[in-house]
Amino acid sequence: ETGVTQSPTHLIKTRGQQVTLRCSSQSGHNTVSWYQQALGQGPQFIFQYYREEENGRGNFPPRFSGLQFPNYSSELNVNALELDDSALYLCASSWDREEQYFGPGTRLTVT
Amino acid sequence: RKEVEQDPGPFNVPEGATVAFNCTYSNSASQSFFWYRQDCRKEPKLLMSVYSSGNEDGRFTAQLNRASQYISLLIRDSKLSDSATYLCVVTKNDYKLSFGAGTTVTVRA
Questions:
Q1: Maximum alpha-carbon separation in chain B
Q2: A1 falls in which pLDDT band (50, 70, 90)?
Q3: A71, exposed or middle or buried, with CB in 10 Å at 0-12, 13-18, 19+?
Q4: Predicted pLDDT at B1
Q5: DSSP of B30-77, one letter per residue?
């Protein structure tokens, strides 16, 4: 196991609602990256947080936002959920933006 | 055009067979290359990095062709446990991993 944990494991939301996903990074890691993986696709980079600052963002709208806390855990927030937001959300932690270790993911279903 | 493209397969091979597949990437500025393995409904796990000179890790061999912008993975003596989706990953060292959609390999007894 990588030591990266995510919560919740599964989540069902209704279109238009808001959701917060959480990630605890591996001990000693200061960087967290978030990815969205739709069914049958590879993970797509959402954004990365390094030492509590956003350090790069993929092609996702502003309703996807995040935070990193002083203990380097992180949250991903998605507002105004759409059906296409249904996916596996993966976080990955690393030390100083080196090799990324993935957590087990949160499976979000939007109905 | 997608940044990383892979043959989705599936590749269905008997135990002990050799299977090989490629991916291509579009950004010539890409600096680092990897193969990840993903089991059904699980997180991706790093299988191996890919170096310009080519590299082996046990039964797995990876090759990189920068001129043609493609990466390959070869699995020798396939085991049942090799059944998985193999994700090709590139990065420009901006710490954003760009994944292909994956190649599915099924090894049958």
A1: 42
A2: low
A3: exposed
A4: 77
A5: --EEEEEEE-TTS--EEEEEE-TT-EEETTEEEEEETTTTEEEEEE-S
What average pLDDT does chain A have?
94
Cross-chain residue pair B95–A55, CB shorter than 8 Å = yes
A58: chain B residues, CB-CB within 8 Å: 96
Of B42, B46, B102, the CB nearest to A42: B102
Would you list which residues of chain B are within 8 Å, Cβ to Cβ, of chain A? 4, 41-46, 87, 94-102
Residue reference for tokens 């954004």: A47
For A27, list phi and psi in degrees, rounded to 5.
-55, 130
Distance CA B52, CA A45 (A): 25
Whether B73 contacts B62, CB under 8 Å: yes
Query: What pLDDT, in 10s, does the model give residues A72-103?
Result: 999 999 999 999 999 999 999 988 767 889 99
More reliable by pLDDT, B96 or A10: A10
Angle at A67 between CA A63 and CA A70, to 5 degrees: 175
- Closest-CA residue in chain A for B96? A45
Q: Which residues in chain A have their CB less than 8 angstroms from residue B44's CB?
A: 43, 90, 102
